[in-house]
Automatic annotation (TrEMBL):
The chain crosses the membrane at residues 32-55. It comes from the Eukaryota. It is found in: Membrane. Pfam families: p450. Keywords: Heme, Iron, Membrane, Metal-binding, Monooxygenase, Oxidoreductase, Transmembrane, Transmembrane helix. Belongs to the cytochrome P450 family. This is Cytochrome P450.
Length: 593
């Protein structure tokens, strides 16, 4: 208004210029003021939001749980209990501990110590994430079964898996998306299909036996035997088996391809294994920068994806050939793609009404490598190590194998069910050395878990490594290798036993599944809807390989072995390798190659 009055009183070129100058100066001032205000608003909003998310939320959640009588280490703003966790982890002897030492103390040490110190349900913060440890079997089971609807996959675990294998794979999918994938893949893990894989597993087992026999033959004194690196040979054999069983022998993969995948999986799961919050954050944030690790990561991943692409295109070509031929016209549609996991996925993508894309099929393949290689290898490796440490049990198991499988060159699928002692050994190994030592979930809604009210956003940890070692559950000898505890008469079986030959491979577990006493406390494969899809394949494979190895070799612990389960993160990989001394079993002929 003032400006108008002024301009109407004394209008001229100088005044006009003057007015324009003052207007533009005022504009600049306004813009500047606006800019400063915007910056201040953003800063204040960020600070408020940071205060809310990093300080207030974790603090109020901690108070919420403390009011319910749940205890934990002292609350620390911003960093949470990372210092305590680091101290505990530093306390673990790095160069290896006593061979009899419980792995639960080494892996996820804080879960063990916090639940020992603060009770079966305890609380702590990792950064700003509130975490509840459920060292209570009944509550753990509720999370996986009756209350599963209140939980989602943990955001951090999901992000880390997604960084490696893309978004929305079966490991990380939720709701309808997960259900569809589960329905597509489940048939490939049914017993009838697994029986068909038996001879392929035997072939790979024979390769391993031959390799170790060569090591003995090349030893200075064949009677003294040879040292083998189980941590190298076992994963190679198992990855080969898993690739051929989940992606079929028609995949056209070569030894070099297997090695490329093996390398990539090892490297990537080594990165993934660091599930500490700091480790996760640095892995997730730093992946956007071309660090040396990231470049290596990308190269390995590319090598693996190339192998996978070859497998997929070989299968597609085969399917098209079959479809084009007259056999396909008279045969079933399924035969064109194959009845293994890859066949199921490709059929769903091409013929079914799923919305699976080619890149999702590749992602799922990657997930299978990640989910299978490491845990299955660990089960076989630790079984061998525990038998090497316990010669009496080794001899008992070997006698059973010799009695059941006899001196036949090729084991028979139907006889596998009779290897009861081997089942007990595997259960005891899974109890003491659970390859997946903890499962995590994020609560999505407020709900009641036993007497505890769980707030949304809480990260809940089911620590199998702790539950499997609880003296209250398993007795004072919980830390000892005692497969006898799995004898069916010692289990609460409700009189049930499995009739199916292969199902008997999991007889003790199957019986235990109905048992209040056992299933609640033994969950190496998780539970509920999201229970491990490959559990029967894993058990059958390891059982068969263990039997084949025991029949041929005797095992003892090499003096060069250093006991350090836990390469980092929450898996039990032997940090300094697993060196075993092997000898030919006296009664066996030792002339292979
Ligand atoms: C001893 C070997 C194995 C162990 C101890 C093991 C353990 C587990 C556990 C604990 C889970 C549940 C994770 C969770 O609930 O967050 C899981 C899920 C899964 N496992 Fe395994 N696993 C083994 C071998 C295998 C094999 C051989 C395959 C496939 C060939 C496989 C495929 C999967 C898949 C696809 C899932 C995700 C299931 C879903 O979310 O629906 N696993 N495994």
């Amino acid at each position: 208004m003032a400006l108008l009055n002024e301009s109407s009183r004394s209008w001229g070129p100088h005044q006009a210029h003057d007015i324009l100058l003052r207007m533009s100066t005022r504009d600049v001032d306004d813009e500047w003021a606006f800019f400063v205000t915007a910056i201040c608003t953003v800063l204040v909003a960020s600070m408020v939001s940071m205060f809310y998310w990093v300080l207030w939320k974790p603090y109020s959640k901690r108070k919420f749980y403390e009011k319910q009588g749940i205890r934990g280490p002292v609350f620390r703003p911003f960093i949470g209990n990372l210092p305590e966790i680091q101290d505990l982890r530093r306390g673990v002897p790095q160069l290896g501990g006593q061979i009899s030492e419980s792995p639960a103390r080494r892996v996820g040490t804080e879960l063990f110590v916090f639940s020992e110190k603060y009770g079966k349900v305890s609380v702590f913060e990792q950064g700003s994430m509130t975490r509840i440890i459920l060292a209570d079997a009944k509550l753990a089971k509720d999370v996986l079964l009756s209350k599963a609807g209140y939980y989602k996959r943990s955001v951090f675990a999901t992000e880390v898996v997604s960084a490696i294998a893309g978004h929305g794979s079966i490991l990380t999918a939720e709701g309808g998306n997960w259900k569809q994938k589960n329905q597509i893949m489940s048939p490939a893990f049914r017993h009838t299909f697994l029986k068909g894989l038996f001879h392929q597993i035997v072939e790979r087992g024979d390769d391993l036996v031959t390799k170790w026999q060569k090591a003995i033959n090349n030893a200075a004194d064949t009677k003294q035997g040879a040292e083998v690196a189980a941590d190298l040979d076992v994963p190679e054999t198992l990855l080969d088996i898993i690739i051929r069983t989940t992606f079929g022998s028609t995949s056209g993969i070569e030894g070099g391809d297997i090695y490329a995948v093996h390398e990539a999986v090892n490297f990537m799961s080594g990165k993934k294994a660091n599930f500490s919050l700091a480790g996760c954050l640095s892995f997730l944030l730093s992946r956007f920068f071309p660090t040396a690790t990231n470049i290596k990561f990308c190269m390995k991943k590319r090598a693996m994806v190339n192998v996978l692409k070859n497998i997929v295109s070989a299968r597609m070509k085969l399917a098209n050939d079959v479809k084009a031929s007259s056999i396909a016209k008279s045969g079933s549609r399924q035969s064109a793609y194959g009845s293994d996991v890859l066949g199921m996925m490709l059929e769903a993508m091409n013929e079914g009404n799923s919305n699976m894309t080619a890149s999702q099929v590749l992602d799922e393949c990657t997930v299978f490598f990640l989910a299978t290689d490491s845990p299955t290898s660990q089960l076989l490796m630790w079984s061998l190590m525990l038998l090497a440490q316990n010669p009496d049990w080794q001899q008992r198991a070997r006698s059973e194998v010799q009695e059941v499988l006899g001196a036949e060159a090729t084991p028979q699928v139907d006889k596998l069910a009779n290897l009861k002692l081997i089942d007990m050994v595997l259960n005891e190994t899974l109890r003491l050395y659970p390859p997946v030592s903890a499962i995590t979930r994020d609560a999505s809604k407020v709900h009641q878990l036993g007497s505890v009210t769980i707030a949304p956003g809480t990260n809940v940890i089911i620590p199998m490594s702790v539950l499997h070692q609880s003296k209250e559950i398993w007795g004072d000898d919980a830390h000892l290798f005692k497969p006898d505890r799995w004898e069916v008469k010692n289990l609460h079986t409700n009189g049930k036993n499995s009739a199916d030959g292969l199902n008997d491979a999991t007889a003790a577990t199957a019986a235990a599944a109905d048992s209040v006493n056992s299933f609640n406390n033994f969950m190496p494969f998780g539970g509920g809807n999201r229970i491990c899809l490959g559990r029967n394949l894993a058990r059958m494979t390891v059982k068969l390989l263990l039997a084949m190895l025991l029949r041929r070799f005797s095992f003892s612990v090499s003096p060069s072995y250093r006991h350090a389960p836990g390469r980092g993160g929450n898996n039990l990989w032997p940090k300094f390798g697993m060196q075993l001394l092997i000898k030919n079993v006296e009664s066996e002929v030792t002339t292979t190659d």
